[in-house]
């Protein structure tokens, strides 16, 4: 594989994962917690980045070594486990994709004044078009890269407009007054939870980047992905902190829009529309691609026509939002299930990493196993709490 081609694949996988993470929920979480914790949120971001890297390094590395997608690794470890994992990923991906489509509708509403439903419908067409071109993989990579760069540049502009107290942010990042563990878990779930952490790993596998010889490339891509998402979160945090520190109260219904409008007026509000749309559509693309990647290996027909399954996934997400207007209460339960995917998937991967029938002579680093194990325990506990609280909401 040529150097330029490998670099392009590494970058494409990194941006696919990063822009899958940077969705409407990402924007809302970051601004909400900054409003709540102020400069102390810097510490939350720092710890979540460390956890994100630990989870993603483990999962991407094992997928590459096993040279098969996560669901096949799970089925090889325990028959039927891969089907269960796929069910969780696809259900969670669909639920969150409806939210992503809704975010795209909100973005177009801010930019052009059209109804969120019409904007969502048109955005769904854009996402579908990406997978209908001949080289869909390259189109997806280029679209996510361009959108990712645009989002970061625009957020940097708003950050400087907000004039945040950078010195205080740096200090509190390492010596916070308060530590919010729920915020840490929420950020981890929003960055590497559900389908997101598999987006780039499966993309690399799909592109032929696999095996022991590719481990350096896989490591570089996985760390780059977390770095891109983290850079966007840090800039958004600083922009939000600048607004909060000036005494402005953020609108709880749409804190992200409040930040951009307060920092740069009407122009800032339009920037929010662009970022919201780009974040939403790239997340739609990532969720659809990754969710279908979890069922491709179960049938020759699905493998052969996987593009059309991706198109169908996007179309279904769009139609649900356009017809209902907002996710039904059942999706609350499915969303809670999404919180359990990371510990299940990472736990499966860690067990698989030490099975010679799956990884051959490969020896998984002990520090990665220990690090991954601690993440599994922490995320399983919070995911369980999320599931329990989600069930009563379903029947309210």
Give a verbal description of the structure.
This protein has helices at 3-21, 24-37, 41-66, 70-77, 81-112, 116-132, 136-162, 166-174, 181-192, 196-206, 215-245, 255-293, 300-304, 306-324, 330-352, 356-359, 366-394. With 396 residues, it is an all-alpha fold. It has one domain (3-66, 99-325). The chain starts with a helix and ends with a helix.
> How would you sum up the global shape?
globular
What structural class results from the helix and strand content?
mainly alpha
Rg, rounded, reads 20 Å
Please outline the major beta sheet.
none
Number of separate domains: 1
Strand content: under 5%
Low-confidence stretches: 327-335
Distance between the termini: 56 Å
Order of helices and strands: HHHHHHHHHHHHHHHHH
Mean pLDDT: 86
The total strand number stands at: 0
Bin the helical content: over 70%
Oligomer: single chain
User: Helix segment count?
Assistant: 17
């Amino acid at each position: 594989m040529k150097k330029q081609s490998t670099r392009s694949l590494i970058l494409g996988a990194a941006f696919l994962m990063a822009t899958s993470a940077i969705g409407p929920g990402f924007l809302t979480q970051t601004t909400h917690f900054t409003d709540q914790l102020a400069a102390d949120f810097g510490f939350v971001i720092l710890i979540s980045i460390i956890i994100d890297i630990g989870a993603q390094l483990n999962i991407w590395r094992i997928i590459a070594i096993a040279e098969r997608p996560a669901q096949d690794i799970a089925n090889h470890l325990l028959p039927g486990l891969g089907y269960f994992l796929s069910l969780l990923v696809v259900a969670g991906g669909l639920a969150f994709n409806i939210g992503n489509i809704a975010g795209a509708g909100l973005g177009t509403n801010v930019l052009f004044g059209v109804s969120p439903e019409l904007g969502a419908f048109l955005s769904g067409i854009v996402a579908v078009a990406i997978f209908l071109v001949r080289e869909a993989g390259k189109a997806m990579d280029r679209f996510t890269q361009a959108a990712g760069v645009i989002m970061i540049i625009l957020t940097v502009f708003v950050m400087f407009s907000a004039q945040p107290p950078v010195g205080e942010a740096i200090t509190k990042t390492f010596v916070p007054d308060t530590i919010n563990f729920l915020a840490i878990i929420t950020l981890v779930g929003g960055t590497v939870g559900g389908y997101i952490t598999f987006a780039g790993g499966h993309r690399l596998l799909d592109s032929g980047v696999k095996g022991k010889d590719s481990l350096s490339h896989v490591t570089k891509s996985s760390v780059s992905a977390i770095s891109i998402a983290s850079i966007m979160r840090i800039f958004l945090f600083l922009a939000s902190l600048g607004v909060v520190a000036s005494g402005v109260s953020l609108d709880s219904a749409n804190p992200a829009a409040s930040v951009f409008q307060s920092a740069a007026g009407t122009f800032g509000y339009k920037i929010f529309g662009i970022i919201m749309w780009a974040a939403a559509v790239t997340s739609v693309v990532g969720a659809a691609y990754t969710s279908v990647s979890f069922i491709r290996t179960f049938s020759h027909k699905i493998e052969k026509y996987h593009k059309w399954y991706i198109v169908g996934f996007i179309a279904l997400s769009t139609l649900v939002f356009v017809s209902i207007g907002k996710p039904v209460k059942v999706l609350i339960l499915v969303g809670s299930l999404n919180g359990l995917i990371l510990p299940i998937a990472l736990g499966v991967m860690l067990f698989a990493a030490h099975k010679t029938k799956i990884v051959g002579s490969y020896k998984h680093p002990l520090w990665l196993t220990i690090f991954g194990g601690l993440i599994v325990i922490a995320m399983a506990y919070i995911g369980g709490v999320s599931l329990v609280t989600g069930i009563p909401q379903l029947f309210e």
